[in-house]
Each structure stands twice: as C-alpha cells, then as structure tokens.
Design a protein that fits this description.
Largest sheet: 2 strands, antiparallel
Strand content: under 5%
Structural class: mainly alpha
Distance between the termini: 10 Å
Strand order of the largest sheet: 1-2
Order of helices and strands: HHHHHHHEEHHHHHHHHH
Radius of gyration: 21 Å
Length: 464
C-alpha cells in the first residue's frame, strides 16, 4: 500500500479479476506451447515425413538462438519505461498477433509433398520465429509481471496457482480435443491427419489471441517498477546470474521438470495410438490429468506451500510422481485405461511443483534484490524462461533421438518390438526427470520456507 500512496493513485485492491486475468495469460501461452510440445514431433514425423532425430536436433539447435533472444528481451523489459497500462502489460497487446501467426505456420500440411530439405527448412524457420522471437517477446513480460501485480507472498502464490489453472485448461482443450479430432482411422489404426492438424493450429492461434487480450484487460500492475537506467555491465550481469544459487537451482529443476513433464506429454502421442492402439485413451489421459490438477493440486498447493514451504512440498511431490512411473514400468498394464490411472497419479506428483513454481521465481527475484540491492525482474525471468526452453528442447530432442534408437519411423510405427520400446520410454523418461528434479531442489535450491519469509520481511522493511 505504501507504493500506491507514493504514487497518489487509487488502485483497486488485488482480487479475482487479477487472478482470472493472469490465468488467461498462461491459457494463451499454452495454446501454442502445449501444442508444440505434444504434437509437433508427431506432426513432422507422421505427416511431413521428417525423421524424429532431425526434428529433435532442430528443436535443440533453436535454443542457441534463445540464448541471445531471451536475455536480450529481459534487458529490453527491464529498461523499458512504464506506460499508463504498466511496464509489462503492453507487450501482451503488441505481440499476441505475431506469436499466434507463427505458431499456425508451423503446421502447414500442404507442404507434406515438398522436397525433404524444404520441409526441414520450413520447420526450422517457423519454429524459431515462434519460439525464439515472438513467444519470447510475450512470455518474458507476462512472467515478469507477477511481481508488479502484488508484493504479498500469499497473493503471489495464488497468482501462480491461477497461472497453472490456465495452463491446465489449455492442456485440457489441447490434450482432450486434439486426439479426438486430429486422428482418422486407416485400416483400423489411428493415424494423424495433416489437414486436421493445420485447422486445429489455426483455431488454437485465434484462441491464444483472445486469451492474451483478456489478460491485458483484467490484470492491474500495482507495484511501480521503474526502468533500469544503470549502464549495462555484461561482466557484472553474468557474475550476478552465475553466482545466484537460488536461480541456478530453480533453472536446474525447471529443465528437469520439463524433461519429465513434456516427456510424458510427448510420449503420450506415441504410447496410446501405437502401443495401445487407442487415441480415445490419450484423450482420457489428458482429461484425467487435467481434472487432477484442477481438483487436487490447484486447491491444495497454496495451503500446503504456506504450511510446509514451496521447496519442501515440491521435493516430496516430484519423488512420488517418479515412484508411480517406476511401478508402472514393472506392472506394464495391458489395458490402456489402467495406464491412464498410473499417468494421472504421476501427474498429481509433478503437479504440485508445477503449480507453485511461478511463485518460486518471484522468491528468486526477491532473494537477488536482498543480496544485490537491484531488482531485475525481466532479466532473471528471461534466464529462467531460457532454461525452460532448454528443458523443452532437451525433452523433444531426447524423445526424438530415443524414438530413433528404438527404431520408430512412419513405416515401423506399429511393429511390436518398436511399440514395446515406446512403452518403456513412456515410463523411464518422466521417472528419471522427476527424480532429478527432487535432487536438484534438495541439494542446489536454497530458498526454504524460513529464508523466503526472511527475504519478504527484509524487503518490506526497505520499502517503508
């Protein structure tokens, strides 16, 4: 409130409009992000005829571009001056169109009969435009905005929860709806339709624009964040980032979380239609996991985090999710809906961490300000965003390469030995990723419950 009094402005109190608006922001993000992580590999292997290894390599190579664009965008955001709408919100309106159009261009099945080199080039150019340039330019301001909406840790945790609800709803729309619409039956087997995927990508792009604009209208920035006018010192910036143990810890955990989570989502596009022969079960898995997030993780995460600490909750939840997949590997259920039960139980495990992780980023930003006396929301979030993209690329690249190792091609998609390898990967990838997340949080990330509360109290004292 002291910040508002200094501005002499009567700003409405933090409330449901902010939470709903912030939810719509990640809803918009994930209409393109989840579509990419769940179906791009499948689209380019099965529709465009590009090898899984090549798709994975392109996704990983794009992260070299992100190393420049993410940090650059973070600096642009930190150094931009606040407008009447705030410091971060204007970017939502500026970039919602470009990111949606670039996502749509990725899934152009009309080019399926073009030369192989053209298809690889088209994939690389459109994927970099979407992920490295336009998605970066909207996601970094959106994520950085949370610390300007409220300074209260409990309200930030609520924003994190509602952001996860937005992602879950997008996952529900994409994960449940897409398999039911995108697959057609050929000789009794589910086959991905290229023309339907193009149509779906167009619809989701329009939905993304609508959600971004709703976020812009509903969210209010309350905490003044002035432009960083200090001369850019690359050496100091690099030193500050690489000596920030909290940031390094959350980066490691984020990369490994995405390896596990996107590994689950990516392999679902193969284990259900190819191993189990059921696109309907894939849709059911998305429905069940989304329901678990909305009915279990979202209502309980904030309270459990407040009681035990976000770090502490996340370690236990990720370890439990890994245990479920290890059990599934040994049980090897023959019924696809029994596999859905395992999938959903594991998703609850990773879901608690995925619900509170956005509040953990604001904890990292606060910790850096306590230590350095400089607030760099955009830069820290940009580095974290880059780490998430590394996790996305590592998951897609690793999944593509491992599918290649088990012999998966368009021609061998239903070979029994290949599909058995697909099942094993669908359990091993997320289990390994979630075990690694728990270890990274336990041994690298230092912001336990006591330290977070101490940092909040110190910043409140400084701002009086």
């Amino acid at each position: 409130m002291a910040n508002l009094e200094k501005q002499g402005a009567a700003v409405p109190a933090f409330g449901m409009k902010d939470k709903l608006g912030y939810m719509f922001g990640d809803f918009g993000n994930d209409f393109t992000f989840i579509l990419s992580s769940s179906f791009m590999l499948k689209f380019y292997t099965d529709v465009m005829g590009v090898s899984a290894e090549i798709v994975g390599i392109v996704m990983m190579a794009a992260r070299l571009v992100d190393a420049v664009t993410d940090v650059t965008m973070g600096q642009i955001v930190d150094r931009s001056k606040p407008t009447k709408d705030g410091k971060f919100k204007p970017w939502l309106k500026r970039m919602c169109g470009p990111v949606a159009i670039a996502s749509f261009l990725i899934y152009q099945s009309a080019f399926a009969d073009m030369a192989y080199g053209f298809k690889v080039a088209w994939m690389a150019v459109t994927y970099i435009l979407w992920g490295s340039i336009f998605y970066t330019s909207i996601n970094i301001p959106y994520g950085s905005m949370a610390s300007a909406v409220t300074a209260d840790p409990k309200e930030r945790a609520e924003l994190s929860t509602w952001r996860t609800i937005g992602a879950t709803l997008a996952g529900l729309a994409i994960g449940v709806g897409t398999p039911l619409v995108a697959y057609v039956s050929v000789d009794g087997k589910p086959v991905l339709s290229g023309s339907r995927m193009t149509m779906i990508a167009g619809v989701f792009s329009i939905c993304a624009i609508v959600c971004y604009l709703l976020c812009f209208q509903l969210v209010r920035e309350r905490i003044p964040v002035e432009a960083n006018s200090q001369k850019l010192d690359i050496g100091r910036l690099v030193s500050s980032l690489f000596t920030n143990r909290a940031l390094l810890g959350i980066i490691a955990a984020a990369i490994l979380l995405l390896v596990g989570m996107l590994g689950m989502q990516g392999m679902a596009g193969f284990v259900f239609p190819n191993y189990y022969g059921s696109a309907a079960a894939q849709s059911a898995s998305s429905m069940a996991s989304s329901a678990a997030m909305l009915l279990v993780c979202a209502p309980l995460a904030s309270g459990l985090a407040a009681k035990f600490g976000k770090k502490e909750l996340s370690i236990v939840s990720c370890a439990s999710g890994a245990a479920v997949f290890i059990l599934c590997l040994f049980v090897r259920p023959s019924n696809p809906y029994v596999y859905v039960v395992f999938f959903t139980a594991a998703y609850i495990g990773l879901g608690f961490f995925n619900t509170v992780i956005w509040a953990m980023i604001t904890d990292v930003i606060d910790d850096a300000e306590v230590r350095n006396g400089i607030r760099e929301d955009g830069t820290i979030y940009a580095v974290y965003s880059f780490a998430r993209k590394l996790g996305q690329a590592a998951s897609s690249g690793m999944t593509g390469m491992l599918l290649g190792l088990v012999g998966y091609t368009k021609e061998t998609a239903y070979d029994p030995e290949v599909t058995l390898g697909i099942f094993n990967l669908s359990c091993i990838i997320p289990a390994a990723g979630l075990i690694a997340v728990a270890l990274a949080l336990a041994f690298i990330y230092p912001l336990n419950k006591a330290r977070v509360e101490s940092n909040v109290a110190e910043l409140a004292r400084r701002r009086k």
